[in-house]
Write a structure and sequence with these properties.
heterodimer; A: about 375 residues; Butyryl-CoA Dehydrogenase, subunit A, domain 3; 3 domains; 12 helices; globular; B: mainly alpha
Chain lengths: ~375, ~80
């Protein structure tokens, strides 16, 4: 007999997938051109997407990470910019639920779980990214408060965020703390969209003496930060990996459809050996990376410590595959692939960001090689 | 296998050097990056059936085998 919880979860994934191929598909081009669309974000919130992976006790639906991956895949297949919100909002919500103080859990978590308050992840600075030790933003302790000063750049969904998870440096060590967007001294400057994820509302966030209670720190000062950062980044990389699969799959389907419909020399171009070669390379890259993502999902659901390593590998493989598959898809579609509004050119642009965000491929190579030393060497 | 042996066997995956395994601060040498730190928390939770909460994220609870055993003992006493 099939378990009821599993059936309910499958039905939920189908419900979100149906929204993706209708409302989100219809809105995706506008998001890419104009930035975040609140009605679409509210639609996802209404369906409980933003807190879906949180436990029911934390206000979520308690779905498996396998289901969460599939939902992220489905959203990214239509709008990678919109999926980006699931990643950054989820990273903040997860650590608030996992390591947040009672104040954080009562003041922020319920609204985050419902998607009524949106969160952004404010780690990156002009001169600090993966190297947390290099953060210049300061959080000085003054009585019961932190006073935050500094500048964070390339922050996705900066304008729509109701709260930022800010990584800063206190005298006692590094700290991660929640700073509401209406805090005095906090300003957001929008950045003109670049090559990728043009609809993710990127901004520069400045903190000029922003005062927040010490209870807004997540995971304490110093030692705890490694766990907060590790938990958030692993979750973020998991989302990026599944986003890459969504993008690659969408581009592959467009390329395969075109290759079977486009007739040249009396046969569909899929029958031309050089096009068949491109399709094969795309299919193998996509399916191989998707299997690695499924392995990562299974490790998350089993709470296997290998989930950290498996997620690094999934993110590395899927983002690399997405760049290659979307490149091949543009080539297969030829001039049509370059057209303004063509789905494969948007996939091509968006895929490019995924080997950079939440840890560049080069940073991941160092980390993955480190695990290989443990798992394969002598 | 005792709790101590299980923790040491797990940590030995990252560095089997006896001096490191018995040190007061396994974080000091740079062997433990944020990824390994997260793996360690998941390992402790899964192996010993505990939940490491915000208050447990103190350096003294996670920086040595003795610290981890002490935390484990306190958490078991609370349940």
């Amino acid at each position: 007999m099939i378990e009821t919880a599993a059936v309910t979860e499958l039905a939920y994934v189908d419900e979100i997938a149906a929204i993706c191929t209708t409302e989100i598909r219809d809105a995706a081009e506008a998001i890419d051109r104009s930035g975040p669309l609140m009605p679409v974000i509210q639609l996802l919130a209404t369906h409980g997407v933003f807190g879906a992976f949180l436990s029911e006790a934390d206000g979520g639906r308690g779905i498996s990470m396998n289901a969460w991956g599939t939902i992220n895949e489905a959203i990214a297949a239509e709008s990678a910019s919109l999926q980006c919100l699931c990643t950054v909002h989820g990273m903040v919500s997860l650590v608030a639920a996992r390591w947040g103080s009672p104040v954080v859990k009562s003041r922020f978590l319920p609204a985050l779980a419902r998607g009524e308050m949106l969160a952004a992840f404010a780690l990156t600075e002009p001169d600090a990214g993966s190297d947390i030790e290099a953060i210049a933003t300061t959080a000085a302790i003054d009585g019961d408060d932190f006073v935050v000063s500094g500048r964070k750049s390339w922050i996705s969904y900066a304008r729509t965020a109701g709260v930022f998870l800010v990584f800063a440096r206190a005298e006692q060590g590094p700290v991660a703390l929640l700073v509401p967007s209406d805090t005095d001294g906090l300003t957001v400057e929008e950045i003109a969209p670049g090559l990728s994820l043009r609809g993710s509302g990127q901004g520069i966030v400045s903190f000029d003496g922003c005062r927040v209670p010490r209870s807004h720190a997540i995971g304490g000062i110093g030692a705890g930060l490694k766990h907060v950062a590790g938990t958030a980044l692993t979750f973020g990389r998991f989302g990026v990996a599944w986003a890459a699969i969504g993008i690659a799959g969408r581009a592959l389907r467009a390329a395969a459809s075109h290759a079977t419909e486009r007739i040249q020399g009396g046969v569909p171009i899929a029958r031309h050996q050089l096009v068949a070669s491109m399709l094969t390379e795309a299919i193998v890259a996509y399916e191989g990376a998707r299997l690695l993502c499924l392995r990562s999902s299974a490790a998350h659901d089993a709470r296997d410590p290998h989930l950290v390593r498996d997620t690094l590998i999934a993110k590395y493989a899927a983002s690399t595959a997405a760049v290659r598959v979307t490149d091949l898809a543009v080539q297969i579609l030829g001039a049509r692939g370059l057209d303004d509004g063509s789905i494969v050119q948007r996939c091509f642009r968006d895929a490019r960001a995924l080997t950079i965000i939440e840890g560049t491929s080069q940073v991941l190579e160092v980390l993955i090689a480190g695990s290989a030393i443990r798992d394969y060497a002598g | 296998m005792s709790d101590r042996e299980r923790i040491r066997a797990y940590l030995a995956r990252f560095n089997s050097d006896e001096e490191w395994l018995s040190s007061d601060d396994i974080f000091a040498t740079g062997v433990v990056d944020s990824m390994i730190a997260l793996e360690l928390v998941i390992f402790l939770e899964k192996t010993f059936g505990i939940t490491i909460e915000e208050d447990d994220l103190q350096i003294e609870n996670l920086c040595s085998v003795n610290g981890m055993l002490g935390m484990l003992e306190r958490k078991r006493a609370m349940t």
